[in-house]
Protein 1
Amino acid sequence: MVLGLSRYAVGYVPGSSLALIEWNEWRSERLNGTMAKATWNGAVIAESDDTIIVEGNHYFPPDSVSMEYLIDNTAHTVCPWKGLASYYDLIVDGDVNGGAAWYYPDPSAAAAEIGGYIAFWRGVQVSG
């Protein structure tokens, strides 16, 4: 169990061992006018100039995501400092990319800023 998640989290810093680091070290600024775009199988899944970058992943505001391409997935994982993640499958032109999007519906206090925001992986191209 990790205590004090509102300020500290256990994390891996490339080139070092596990360390107790401040939450602010994980955060990046918002894009502020630079458009980020998530695409898969020729479709634009999300587009926003207000993503939040955490650990190198763009988290898109829910209203910037084309939800017609997403369907609930029953998978869940736990991040020790962000909390319980839920997943979506992507479906474009009949092709399915299982668990390619994730979000934190009720994140820890340390990750409250990304609550409900959606990130992508598994072949989804994110530019911006």
Protein 2
Amino acid sequence: MVSATRTSLTTFTPITSMATITKRELVIQITDKLGAKGIEITQQDVFEVVQTLIDEVTDALSQGDTVVMRNFGAFQVREMKAKIGRNPKDPSKDVPIPARAAVKFKPGKEMKEKVATTLQVIRERQ
């Protein structure tokens, strides 16, 4: 997977060597960490908890609520105003883009601090 970091308003630096963690891999990691703490729980049970969390966050956001998880971050629905775009194949043509709702994520303090220290790790992987 190729992701990008924003370095200015128009320039992106691609990060090609970052790992992608799937829901399945997350479930395995959680199960292993809990097992190391002596908490015996099956991967299926952890999967149910993770899926229920995702479903509940999605349901709350679909009703316009904000979801706040201390030290992790906040999800909120914001309105993206209607605008006029350009057709990349024919830039002279205007394309109306309707207003829509979009989910925005604001990281919490603890997450910001941890992520801020990863620049060296990212550079080493490239």
